[in-house]
Every structure is written in C-alpha cells, then in structure tokens.
C-alpha cells in the first residue's frame, strides 16, 4: 500500500493506494470517529462491492443508500434521497458518510456530507479510474443543474481517500479510457516526464497492468494533491486542472449528460485546447500531434461531436465557472507540461479552433 498526503493544515488527509483496501477494517476505523456510518453507492457498484465493505464495517451502525446509476441522476432530487435516509435512521452529527463508487457518487456524497447537519465526516472510496485519479481528491463536491454541470456544490474535504485498485477489474474498457484522459491531463499540465512515461506504457495501462496502474494513480494523485495544497479553492493555479474541461463540459451538456463520458469529452476538449495553444504560437504543431496521438491511443475521441457548431460551444462555454466578470478564461499550454489560465487569447484563435473541428 502506498500513502500520499494532501497538505491542507487541519484539513489535511491521507490517500491510500493499494490492493484489497475495501476489506481493511483497521484502516477504515482510523478515519471513523462515531458509531454511525452511511455508505452511499449506486445500483451498479452495490452488487459488486457493497457486501465486502459492509463486512469490514462490522461493529458500526451501518446505513446503506443505493442510488440510481449515472450522471443523469447527479441531481437535487437524488441528493434528497440521501438526506431522507439519514434523517429516517436518525443519524447524528458524528455520522460518517462513505462514498463507494465513481465520481458521481463521490461528488454527491461529499456534498451531502457538507450539508447534513451543517457538515459531517466523509470518506472517499473511489471505484472508477477517473474518480481514483481525480474527483476523489481535492474536495470539490456537488451536483448538476439543468442549466450547467456542477453548478451547485461546496468545497468540502474528505477525512481520507481509500483507493482499492482491485475494483478496476470490473470497470468497462470505455470507463478505463475515460480515466486515462484525466491521467494524460496531469502530464500535459505539469509533468512532461510523466507524459513520456504514459506514451511508453499506454497499452499496459489500458490492459490494467497492476503495477503500471498503481504508478499512474500515485503520480496523478501526487500532482493533484500538490496543486490543491497550493490553491484549495481555485483562486488561481488550481484552474489548470481544468485543461480541456471548458470545451469538454460544453460537449457533455450539448450531447446530454451521460451520452459522452466526462473523460471522453475531456479527451476531445484537450485536443481543442492544444490546437488553440498552437494557434497562439505557444506550442508546435508537432506537440499537438504528439499529444493527440497519446489521447487517441488511450481510446478517446480527439474531435468533438459532428453535431456541434461553433455557436453551440460559445453559448455553452458562457456558463463555465471560469468565466469571471463576463470574460471567458481558458486553460492553455505554454509548452507541454506547462499550463496557464488565460483570458488573453486572440478570439480569432478560438474561432479558428471551433471552426477547424467541424469535421
Ligand atoms: P460515474 O460515477 O458515473 O461512474 C461511471 C460508471 O461506472 C457508472 O455506471 C458506475 O456505476 C460504474 N462503476 C463505478 N465503479 C465501477 C466498478 N468498479 N466496476 C464496474 N462499474 C463501475 O463516473 P466517473 O467517471 O467515475 O465520474 C464522473 C463524475 O465525476 C462527473 O460527474 C464529473 O463531474 C465528476 N468529477 C468530479 C471531479 C471533482 O474534482 N470533484 C473531478 C472530475 C470529475
Ligand atoms: Mg475532470
């Protein structure tokens, strides 16, 4: 088992990465302070892992909340089911919520923990590659609104993140690729050596080679932990974690949540951000081609859906959370491994990128 730490003063917490963590009752107990525990999961993950986790929680008063699967259910009314169950079972302020599932469950459970009785403890047990390398770390929690993705939420840090790499064995290949999008993102924004390592190992990663996957998760979590420690509430540098996401969120919203996976939209969105960075004269066309080849080798789309026009992007990107005072800001690359957040781009570059991708 590997351990990393997210350094946030009195809100610091460990990330554990390893095989068979789900059943390690001692590890769990270290991060549960009361007698009540509420495990929140979805109806896909529940039959796979809920029993094993509940075995490890013997001795606690365990409430199980099984929500419908999918991004389309990352809503206010689904969240209400968690509160209803907690209140019906009389969970008090010392309860601990455990998120067992992908990013949808992690984001919703974290937000439920932030709200319930003004804040209770929670633990992340991410079971998708994407949630293991990204959403379970850093304390962004929330739900979607029909007008925009993740528009309601809170910054609320977990007490611990337990990443059981065995859970990936049941993950569909398409979801593995979606997780690889966020892993490639870390190389592009921050670590060109990691990018080269990913190029060398991409097929082993898609095949879920255990030591390669563990290494990729650890390096990704390390980068995310460093960025979050530097800027917990996204006043500045944290926004670089959104490379490809402004374009990607527009794709997700346009296609209907759940049609394109988040990671797939981020894959195509990163290619658009790379293209724009090239048009701004910051990176070479060879850099764009190199990164695009890696994204494609991960099994991800490298261009947006054919039914999206430039004006669809412009309309949807106007509600992005990086829009400040009406001005769109984008994450672009000054070089491979070096991201910046900028509003100072030539709008002609943006228009050219949007037009170029109407393939
Ligand atoms: P997800 O939670 O929808 O999970 C994907 C699918 O895999 C679901 O059908 C789920 O039931 C299934 N699943 C989960 N674990 C499984 C397993 N071990 N075996 C088989 N099937 C399994 O999607 P995701 O990609 O994990 O997360 C995407 C969400 O995360 C989005 O809502 C996105 O906004 C959010 N996100 C949040 C952050 C953050 O910082 N909070 C960062 C990135 C993404
Ligand atoms: Mg993301």
UniProtKB/TrEMBL annotation:
Pathway: Metabolic intermediate biosynthesis; chorismate biosynthesis; chorismate from D-erythrose 4-phosphate and phosphoenolpyruvate: step 2/7. Keywords: Amino-acid biosynthesis, Aromatic amino acid biosynthesis, Cobalt, Cytoplasm, Lyase, Metal-binding, NAD, Nucleotide-binding, Zinc. Its cofactor is Co(2+); Zn(2+); NAD(+). This is 3-dehydroquinate synthase. Residues 65-177 form the 3-dehydroquinate synthase N-terminal domain. It catalyses: 7-phospho-2-dehydro-3-deoxy-D-arabino-heptonate = 3-dehydroquinate + phosphate. Belongs to the sugar phosphate cyclases superfamily. Dehydroquinate synthase family. Its EC number is 4.2.3.4. The lineage of its organism: Bacteria, Pseudomonadati, Pseudomonadota, Gammaproteobacteria, Pseudomonadales. The gene is aroB. NAD(+) binds at residues 103-107, 127-128, 140, 149. It comes from the Bacteria. InterPro entries: Dehydroquinate_synthase, DHQ_synth_AroB, DHQ_synth_fam, DHQS/DOIS_N, DHQS_C. It is an enzyme of class 4 (lyase). Its main location: cytoplasm. GO terms for cellular component: cytoplasm. It is found in: Cytoplasm. Residues 179-323 form the 3-dehydroquinate synthase C-terminal domain. GO terms for molecular function: 3-dehydroquinate synthase activity; metal ion binding; nucleotide binding. It comes from Halopseudomonas laoshanensis. One of its GO terms (biological process) is amino acid biosynthetic process. Binds 1 divalent metal cation per subunit. Can use either Co(2+) or Zn(2+). Zn(2+) binds at residues 182, 245, 262. Catalyzes the conversion of 3-deoxy-D-arabino-heptulosonate 7-phosphate (DAHP) to dehydroquinate (DHQ). NCBIfam families: aroB (TIGR01357).
């Amino acid at each position: 088992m590997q351990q990393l730490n997210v350094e946030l003063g009195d809100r610091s917490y460990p990330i554990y990465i390893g095989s068979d963590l789900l059943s390690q009752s001692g590890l769990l107990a270290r991060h549960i302070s009361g007698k009540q525990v509420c495990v929140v999961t979805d109806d896909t993950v529940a039959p796979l892992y809920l029993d094993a986790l509940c075995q490890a929680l013997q001795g606690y008063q365990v409430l199980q909340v099984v929500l419908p699967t999918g991004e389309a259910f990352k809503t206010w009314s689904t969240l209400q089911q968690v509160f209803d169950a907690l209140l019906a079972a009389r969970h008090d302020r010392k309860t601990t919520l455990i998120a067992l599932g992908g990013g949808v469950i992690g984001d919703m459970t974290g937000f439920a923990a932030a709200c319930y009785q003004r804040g209770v403890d929670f633990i992340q047990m991410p079971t998708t590659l994407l949630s293991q390398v990204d959403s379970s770390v850093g304390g962004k929690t929330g739900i979607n609104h029909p007008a925009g993705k993740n528009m309601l939420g809170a910054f609320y840090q977990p007490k611990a993140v337990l990443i059981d790499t065995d859970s990936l064995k049941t993950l569909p290949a398409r979801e593995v690729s979606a997780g690889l999008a966020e892993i490639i993102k870390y190389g592009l924004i921050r670590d060109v050596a990691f990018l080269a390592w990913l190029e060398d190992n991409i097929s082993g990663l898609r095949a879920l080679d255990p030591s390669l996957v563990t290494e990729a998760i650890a390096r990704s979590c390390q980068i995310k932990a460093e960025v979050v420690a530097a800027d917990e509430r996204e006043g500045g540098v944290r926004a670089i974690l959104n490379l490809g996401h402004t374009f990607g969120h527009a794709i997700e919203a346009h296609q209907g949540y759940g049609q394109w996976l988040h990671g797939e939209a981020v894959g195509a969105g990163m290619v658009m951000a790379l293209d724009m960075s090239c048009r701004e004269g910051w990176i070479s066309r060879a850099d764009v081609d190199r990164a695009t080849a890696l994204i494609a080798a991960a099994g991800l789309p490298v261009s947006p859906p054919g039914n999206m026009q430039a004006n669809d992007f412009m309309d949807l990107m106007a509600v992005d959370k990086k829009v400040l005072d009406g001005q769109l800001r984008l994450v672009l690359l000054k070089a491979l491994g070096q991201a910046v957040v900028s509003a100072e781009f030539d709008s002609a570059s943006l228009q050219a990128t949007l037009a170029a991708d109407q393939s």
